[in-house]
Amino acid sequence: MDKDFWVKLKSQLLEFLIEIGPELIYSLVTFILGIFFIKIIMRLLKGALKKSKTELSLKTFVESLSIFLLYGFLFFIIGSILGIKTTSFIAVFGAAGIAIGLALQGSLSNFAGGVLILVFKPFKVGDLIHVNNNLGFVEKIDILYTRIKTFDGRIITMPNGNVSNSDVDNRTMEKYRRIDLNLKFSFDTDIDEVRQMIVNGMNRHPKLAKHLPVDVWLDEIGEYQMKLKARCWVESVEYWPAYWEQLEAVKKELDREGIKIPIPKHAIYKEE
Fold first, then answer.
1. Whole-structure pTM value
2. Which helix (H) or strand (E) covers residue 123, if one does?
3. CATH of 20-103 among 1.10.287.1260, 2.60.450.10, 2.60.120.260, 1.10.357.10
4. Is the CATH number of domain 116-170 2.30.30.60?
5. How far is 170 from 141, CA to CA, in rounded Å?
6. Which CATH architecture has domain 176-256?
7. Which residues have CB under 8 Å from 27's CB, separation 6+?
8. 3-61, pLDDT tens digit by residue?
């Protein structure tokens, strides 16, 4: 009986392979050719996006989405070759889509967030942004994630869903950005004299936006000192180097003129 069972099983297996064999071969050939054509299509798409001078952020998103759709279409064709009816195929994909959607709600939120980022453009690749306590240059906007590079060389990958629902401080969207320096002086310092010194020092910076004002104002009268705010404008991409250079330039100008930064002092009186 055992021998008859194995003979029958072998016969049924051979019949199954003979019946479905051509479809398996066709499916394998289709899969190999499909991958080949997908690579060609993606190469042509990348070339077209490059020639059209599409924004890098949109380019990476379109490429990621195209790969997803092309492979989905390839598997649909393979399923049709294997004899899966279109209605059944759609039903299976629909059920799978619901199950995957429930399991991957976060990923769907990230996809929607990526679409919102590309539509409303709060930032693009190359911008300096501050979001979720992270400051860095946008390296890549993918279908699900946004990647930024910090000043100290760290790569931070953030879900698009979180980014699209957060306050984004884009520090390079505007061409020019204002530098604010907070300075302290003793009460006996001549404001007009110090103002001219600071303006002279800041005006020497080579990357200063000459068409925008350089000004110095009394900002606060404190308990032991007065506080001045010095302001100038530079291109946004030059902000941090210019900030440090201007701070140093003002300090050197004050030193040349013999102006000292006040040091808090406490007077102690002895009762007799």
1. 0.60
2. none
3. 1.10.287.1260
4. yes
5. 15
6. 2-Layer Sandwich (3.30)
7. 78, 81, 82
8. 665 666 566 656 655 666 667 777 778 888 888 888 888 888 877 777 776 666 667 77
